């Protein structure tokens, strides 16, 4: 019988209204189980691991990502797939981080959650949970159909490290702006094989170390030297710079000098675009030619979630700076298009 481990970290899916504060607070897995009697009708062997404490995902941390990765490593051989129940707010960060931490994954790790708590009549939680379980259980020729970390939400399956939370109000909470969806749930579950990562030929390798010492520099016309220096002259090891269009920045001398000093001081500067779709193309305009020459690294079409977690992951592996820069430009888990 197919075995699946449900890892419950928290999120709206299991929340209830606290009469004292009037706010939604996380509740334990019993709440979910009682509201989805259909779970008993599924022909799977289900086991549940609940995190303690149960979290609103705004309180998620890299330490908890490592705990989840370690749990998957420890119980990898017991299960055919893993479903992680998680708040939608930072789900794309956790999915991206896990995709890097779990190298050579040959089983599905499907994150899901909901916009309305499972106890609400109009909840989207039941469908999300039941279909996520079905996806985690689906095999082809005896092997997992989707051997990757992904997000299932509102009838669509996305690659985890390509996803962004796009809407805080609609059931359609996620999008994958630069990569096609992996599957769609209608009357049947349709998988789009061409877009799903192939089965790896090596054994699972789990990376638990990370370096979260990164900073973010989001540009806007009028940004001051003080605001830029607060990041470029800080003690972070790397900076994710969110630029205009295809990776452009102001060419003002003071700004270029700030970046140069940061690079000379050993920081990595990764250029990703503020546009939701499309890629950084350093050198396409004169306003990014200089960045290319001075060693700013292209983040291509990576999401912010992928860029930050990939940097944390690579910088946590004890690699030389040049090696981190080289790997940032390669697709390690299908997170970017070169
Ligand atoms: N604040 C919640 C969380 O991310 C929202 C959700 O689950 O959708 O935990």
Tell me about this structure.
This protein is an alpha/beta fold and 338 residues long. It has 2 domains: 2-206, Rossmann fold; 214-328, Rossmann fold. The chain is 28% helix and 24% strand. β12 and β13 form a beta hairpin. The radius of gyration is 21 Å and the shape is globular. Aspartic acid binds next to loops. The site of aspartic acid has 11 residues, from loops.
What would you say about this model in short?
This protein is of the alpha/beta class and 338 residues long. It contains 9 helices and 20 strands.
Number of strands: 20
Number of domains: 2
- Specify the CATH homologous superfamily of the largest domain: L-asparaginase, N-terminal domain
CATH class annotation of the largest domain:
Alpha Beta
What small molecules does the structure contain?
aspartic acid
Q: Per CATH, what is the topology of the largest domain?
A: Rossmann fold
Radius of gyration: 21 Å
Overall 3D form: globular
Tally of individual helices: 9
Q: How is the biggest beta sheet arranged?
A: 8 strands, mixed
Q: Name the poorly predicted regions.
A: none
Structural class call reads alpha/beta
Examine the secondary-structure arrangement and name the CATH architecture of the largest domain: 3-Layer(aba) Sandwich
Percent helix among the residues? Answer: 25-40%
In whole angstroms, the N-to-C terminal distance is: 41 Å
Strand order of the largest sheet: 4-1-5-7-10-11-14-15
β-strand amount = 15-25%
Q: Give the topology string: H per helix, E per strand.
A: EEEHEHEHEEHEEEEEEEEEEHEHEHEHH
Q: Which oligomerization state do the chains in this entry correspond to?
A: single chain
């Amino acid at each position: 019988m197919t075995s699946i481990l449900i890892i419950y970290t928290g999120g709206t899916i299991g929340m209830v209204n606290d009469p004292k504060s009037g706010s939604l607070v996380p509740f334990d897995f019993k709440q979910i189980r009682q509201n989805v009697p259909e779970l008993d009708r599924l022909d799977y062997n289900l086991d549940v691991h609940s995190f303690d404490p149960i979290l609103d995902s705004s309180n998620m941390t890299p330490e908890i990502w490592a705990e989840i990765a370690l749990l998957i490593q420890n119980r990898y051989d017991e299960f055919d797939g893993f479903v992680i129940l998680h708040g939608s707010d930072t789900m794309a960060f956790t999915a991206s981080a896990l995709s890097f931490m779990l190298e050579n994954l040959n089983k599905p790790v499907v994150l899901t959650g909901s916009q309305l708590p499972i106890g609400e009549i109009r909840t989207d939680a039941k469908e999300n949970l039941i279909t996520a379980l079905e996806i985690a259980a689906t095999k082809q020729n005896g092997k997992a159909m989707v051997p990757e970390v992904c997000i299932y939400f509102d009838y669509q399956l996305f690659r985890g490290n390509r996803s962004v939370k796009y809407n805080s109000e609609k059931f359609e909470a996620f999008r994958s702006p630069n990569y096609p969806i992996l599957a769609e749930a209608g009357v049947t579950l349709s998988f789009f094989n061409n877009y799903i990562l192939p089965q790896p030929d090596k054994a699972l390798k789990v990376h638990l170390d990370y370096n979260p010492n990164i900073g973010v520099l989001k540009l806007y016309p009028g940004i001051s030297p003080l605001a830029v220096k607060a990041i470029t002259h800080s003690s972070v090891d790397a900076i994710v710079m969110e630029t205009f269009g295809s990776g452009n920045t102001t060419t003002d001398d003071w700004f270029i000098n700030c970046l140069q000093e940061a690079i000379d001081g050993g920081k990595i500067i990764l250029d990703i675009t503020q546009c939701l779709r499309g890629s950084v193309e350093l050198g396409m305009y004169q306003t990014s030619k200089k960045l290319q020459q001075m060693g700013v690294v292209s983040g291509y079409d990576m999401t912010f979630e992928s860029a930050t977690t990939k940097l944390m992951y690579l910088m946590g592996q004890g690699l030389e700076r040049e090696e981190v820069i080289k790997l940032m430009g390669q697709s390690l888990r299908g997170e970017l298009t070169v």
